[in-house]
Amino acid sequence: MSGGEATRRPPPDSGPDAPRADAGPSVSPPPLASGPGGPEALRPLLGTVLDALAAGVAERGGPLPAGGPEAVAARVADALGDVLPDTGDPDALRALVHTLAAGAADPADPLCAAHLHCPPLALATAADLAVSALNPSLDSWDQAPAASALEAAVARTLARTAGLADALVTTGGTESNQLALLLAREAHGGSVRLVCGAGAHHSLPRAAWLLGLPDPVVLPAPNGTLDPAALDQALTTLSGPLLVAATAGTTDAGLIDPLPQIAGLCDAHGVRLHVDAAYGGGLLFSDRHRDRLAGLEAAHTVTLDLHKLGWQPVAAGLLAVARPGELAVLHQHADYLNAADDSEAGLPDLLGRSLRTTRRADILKIAVTLRTLGRSGLGALVDRVCTRAGEFAELVREHPGFELYDRPVVSTVLFRPAEADDDAVAAVRRRLLYEGRAVLGRARLDGRLWLKATVLNPHTRPDDLAHLLKLAEGSTPG
Q1: Under 8 Å CB-to-CB from 204, ≥6 apart: which residues?
Q2: Helix (H, G, I), strand (E, B) or coil at 336
Q3: Structure pTM?
């Protein structure tokens, strides 16, 4: 029999969704997002979503909804009504997307600058729609043939950009840091002790607890970065297998630990090194700023996260590794996913690429972004936000009513009203939140509370920054 399409496809009424003689009255199921009719089924729905997004943004009128948690929850409850009604509501898509947009903290608004929460690129978001429609699952090749090949190639390229050999795709910095500790534990025969600075991300000690490791050794971080002298002393006195975790881009202030010195100490003491570059890793794309990550290539593992300085929709994390052979400890066998004879026949085995089973093809949006913008295009975005952060710091420094913590290392600026106590600083932030006028973060360094502006929006203009400072000034108790 020939292999033409007419011989491969069953007749229209013979598939699993075809009516059966005993099925009772025929009711057509809702259309699917993929398959031959998927694009046309999506087209009018996308129009509904886009219109609802626009209406919700217009209703919000600012970086976040006014009124605080109770007011937002009331509006959501009103729009949601009965969560599971007996009869469905055909207007639910429009109504709930509208409500979500009207009640969002919008990272695309220049006055929404609290967190490492980037506005995603339109092209990356469009690519992510394709993933949602096709719904590949990266736990076996037969569920994701093209996606698995794409992931392998793109992850390897990003790892090599950081000076390492390969990478796993993760949900973000927390999962990457957990995997780094797991690989270190297994490389040392089942136990390792974490050594990190006081500015390390909370997910690192949490991962040590989750993996049943000894309590971490937390070293001083004067000026917010790990002290090499304290690290040298700790590595000299501590016994047993150790993992040093350095940070390239702290959550509080965007600071970078002295990576070359730390890498040298780890090498001298024969200690494994992990670098959490979830924030600062984006500097790798920039010719102007990548030298700040010198020493990164000496790490055994590196956390990267492109839903920060990569402008991807959540999630877009990676863990880069210097020794791909260490990933063998993640391997699991499930006959329905990676039967031995299938692997021997050449079907890729994906269960050793993650601790998760079902996984989205988050790599597509990353691949589209890398190919569309190139390193220079992404580097230009990095340079823009770093420049804007420097300009905002200069505005703060010149303002007599504010105190600047320091010049930004990446794109985070810490500042506070001059002569204000911590309660007053906290009150400024909350007032702006409740009024829906600006979203600023908070950070505690040197024993004091600071307001935090994290510039991740490449469309932010100097006058936006001036307005943000004016809003903070106007909300400072008199």
Answers
A1: 177, 181, 194, 196, 216, 245, 276
A2: helix
A3: 0.94
pLDDT in tens, 68-119: 999 999 999 999 999 999 999 999 999 999 999 999 999 999 999 999 999 9
In angstroms, what is the C-alpha Rg of the chain? 25
Among all chains, which residue has been given the structure tokens 């005993």?
A: 22
The secondary structure of 103-133 as a DSSP string is T---TTSTTB-SSS-PPPPHHHHHHHHHHHH
Report the DSSP pairing between strands 448-454 and 441-445: antiparallel
Task: Give Cα separations from 462 to 42, 190, 398, 467 (angstroms).
Answer: 39, 52, 15, 9
Residue found by looking up tokens 């024969």 in the block: 270
> Residue 284 has what DSSP assignment?
G
What percent of the chain has pLDDT above 90? 93
With tokens 């230009």, the residue in question is: 380
According to the 3-state scheme, what is the secondary structure of 184-228? HHHHCCCCCEEEEECCCCCHHHHHHHHCCCCCCEEECCHHHCCCH
* Class of CATH domain 128-372: alpha beta
Cα angle for residues 42, 33, 16 (degrees, 5° grid): 135
- Where exactly are the structural domains of the chain? 128-372
Whole-angstrom CA distances from 55 to 76, 77, 92, 96, 108 are: 15, 19, 15, 12, 16
Helices (H), 270-414: 335-338, 340-344, 363-398
Q: Are 410 and 375 in contact (CB under 8 A)?
A: no
Write down the residue that tokens 């004016």 correspond to. 470
172-195 per-position pLDDT tens digit: 999 999 999 999 999 999 999 999
In the predicted model, is pLDDT for residue 125 greater than 70?
yes
Query: Does residue 299 sit in helix, strand or coil?
Result: coil
User: Which residues, listed in sequence order, are joined to residue 276 by a DSSP beta bridge?
Assistant: 247, 303
Distance, in Å, from the CA atom of 137 to the CA atom of 353, rounded to the nearest integer, reads: 13
With tokens 């973000």, the residue in question is: 172
Q: Tokens representing 234?
A: 């700790």
In contact, 358 and 382? CB cutoff 8 Å: no
pLDDT at 366: 98
Number of continuous H segments (helices) and E segments (strands) in the chain: 15, 11
Q: pLDDT class for 9, splitting at 50, 70, 90?
A: low
Nearest one of 432, 428, 429, 436 to 103, comparing CA atoms: 436
Specify whether the CB–CB gap between 114 and 441 falls below 8 A. Answer: yes
pLDDT in the model for residue 8: 54
Query: Could you give the 3-state DSSP secondary structure of residue 274?
Result: strand
474 vs 207, 401, 432, CA distance in Å?
41, 11, 10
